[in-house]
Design a protein that fits this description.
- The structure is a single chain.
- The chain has 327 residues and is mainly alpha-helical.
- The chain has one domain.
- It is 45% helix and 9% strand.
- It is built from 13 helices and 6 strands.
- The chain has helices at residues 25-33, 64-74, 82-92, 103-111, 124-138, 145-148, 167-173, 176-194, 196-202, 229-244, 252-255, 259-274, 291-310, and strands at residues 3-4, 43-47, 76-81, 211-217, 224-228, 318-321.
- The longest helix has 20 residues, at 291-310.
- It is globular.
- It starts with a strand and ends in a 6-residue tail after the last strand.
């Protein structure tokens, strides 16, 4: 059985130039399934000798150990066998493609923003395209454009594709709902990667009906924001879809120590127990245990705090509960 590397192009939308990225087989398979799979036996994952961390969104990561760990986790190439290539490609060809995102928004992303960075798998735009297209198929209740733009106001490593001065321009291109969730996304992501908010929520599983909302700070300028409980659940489902794109292609038990995989598992567990998994997300979780897992989690929490401190962003938040609650 032969194995080949493959970057399959996304099918073109009917009414918008496809300035977005491409969907490789891993991403296509996730959209087909409505979830993620350990593709062990279908793919061979090897180290990429030409991988350059400084060309990715992790270029600002400091420290020999953190850089070595993230390079080990994402600096890989996937070689798929012929059977998997044919099966996934055929199944994906049956998926209805998303509608237009709008020419004005496309032009804004192209001319006013800088998404020309590499990501964990392929380009930044490949990642954004996956998040958008998965949402369009498996979270139809809400706009997929939120996930297309989830990084526009900053990523976890203090890379900002758009300047804060252009926020009013962006808002004019979006609905109030979309703008609310786009500006909240980088902040909620950092809170999830800091784990404290997830621990707090897990401890209140029996009282979540009393949750009124959450206050927090916008990453790009530290402005205080607030989501009510309903919007918070919507936001957490957007975050869930986003996490799916960071799960390793194969050998989950071996790679479960990846910090963002741990965050994915933690959010999946919480949303499932809370009865708030609204997007279609299917996979069989693995246990995240061991000293390496704990070490990586500790490093991740420290790094998130350092990144926010460098830009004057506060990770403080407040979960708001109904007055009648005894919490």
């Amino acid at each position: 059985m032969t194995y080949e590397p493959l970057m399959a192009s996304t099918q073109t939308m009917t009414d918008t130039p496809r300035m977005l990225g491409q969907l490789d087989l891993r991403r296509q398979a996730a959209i087909v399934k409505g979830g993620i799979t350990d593709h062990q036996g279908e793919v061979m994952v090897v180290r990429d000798p030409d991988f350059d961390l400084d060309k990715t969104i992790f270029q600002t990561l400091e420290g020999l150990l953190p850089r070595a760990m993230i390079k080990r986790d994402i600096g890989v190439i996937a070689y798929w066998n012929d059977t998997a290539i044919q099966r996934i490609s055929n199944e994906f060809s049956q998926i209805e493609r998303p509608i237009s995102i709008g020419q004005s928004l496309t032009e804004f992303m192209t001319s006013e923003c800088n998404f020309c960075m590499e990501h964990a798998d392929g380009s930044f735009m490949d990642h954004l395209t996956f998040c958008h297209d998965y949402c369009a198929v498996h979270y139809k209740q809400h706009s997929p454009r939120v996930l297309l733009l989830h990084s526009i106001l900053g990523v976890g490593t203090n890379y900002f594709p758009m300047e804060a001065e252009k926020i009013p321009q962006l808002a004019e291109l979006l609905t109030p709902f979309e703008m609310k969730h786009v500006e909240a996304f980088p902040s909620i992501l950092r809170l999830l990667l800091s784990w404290q908010v997830m621990d707090d929520l897990q401890n209140k599983l029996g009282s979540l009906d009393k949750l009124d909302g959450i206050k927090f700070h916008r990453v790009i300028d530290n402005k205080e924001l607030e989501l009510n409980a309903e919007d918070f659940w919507v936001q957490l489902n957007y975050q869930m879809i986003h996490f799916l794109d960071f799960v390793p292609t194969a050998d989950w038990e071996k790679n479960v120590s990846m910090t963002i995989f741990q965050a994915c598992l933690g959010l999946y567990d919480f949303l499932t127990k809370a009865g708030q998994m609204r997007a279609t997300v299917s996979f069989d979780p693995v246990a995240a245990t061991g000293l390496l897992t704990k070490l990586k989690k500790k490093i991740s929490i420290k790094k998130v705090a350092e990144y926010s401190q460098k830009i004057g962003h506060s990770l403080d938040y407040e979960l708001k509960w109904a007055r009648s609650s005894s919490l």
